[in-house]
Amino acid sequence: MRNYHVDLNNTTDRTWTMAIYRGTPNATGQDNIAWKRTEVPPLSTGGIDWEHGVGAPRPKSPSAGIAEVGQALLDELAHEWDIVYTDGVQRLRGAPTYWVGLFRDVRAGEALGGNFDIGPIELQFPEGTNTAVIDIVGQGNSTTHRTTYASR
Fold first, then answer.
1. Would you place residue 62 in the very low, low, confident or very high pLDDT band (cuts 50, 70, 90)?
2. Which tens digits make up the pLDDT trace of 30-58?
3. E strands within the chain?
4. CA within 20 to 30 Å of 29's CA: 63, 88, 98, 146, which one?
5. Who contacts 56 (Cβ-Cβ below 8 Å, separation ≥6)?
6. 46 close to 8: Cβ distance less than 8 angstroms
7. What is residue 61's predicted lDDT score, i.e. its pLDDT?
């Protein structure tokens, strides 16, 4: 398990809601709804932290609550991690991909799907990093952003 972090430095005059997605937000299925979210007021910094595990079961059917572990999960891991054999020992190398969406004027209970004000921003953590920092600058409807990576 490894801890990952996404920080949002908001230097704008508006409150932004940052949402994290495990799958491509515009795709169909359960991963197109925000997994985690936080609000960041103007001239503030906020963030989301989580632990990413390898080999954790994923729901097979959201309505049935059944988890499936097996070849499908291993195939998914093969795309997310490099499987390296060293001296007969299997090691996983690499990092997961997540997506971030930024929203303004979010109402309580609103589903955060593909209606982004900014995004989706793909986060591919380079090897050796576990923190993405998104800086958003500007005023009103004129904003720009950039993403950098670090380790903590």
1. very low
2. 545 667 889 999 999 999 988 876 443 33
3. 2-10, 16-21, 36-40, 44-52, 58-61, 66-68, 82-86, 89-93, 97-104, 118-124, 131-139, 142-150
4. 146
5. none
6. yes
7. 39
For the segment 87-146, what is each residue's pLDDT rounded down to a tens digit? 776 665 666 788 898 988 777 777 666 678 898 899 998 888 999 999 999 988 899 999
| Residues written for the chain | 152
What the block records as the tokens of 151 is 């380790």
CB-neighbour burial class of residue 6 (10 A; exposed 0-12, middle 13-18, buried 19+): buried
| Domains of the chain and CATH, by start | 2-53+94-150 (2.60.40)
How far is the CA of 90 from the CAs of 41, 69, 82, 109, in angstroms?
45, 19, 10, 44
DSSP 8-state code for residue 106? P
The CA distance from 105 to 107, in Å, is 6
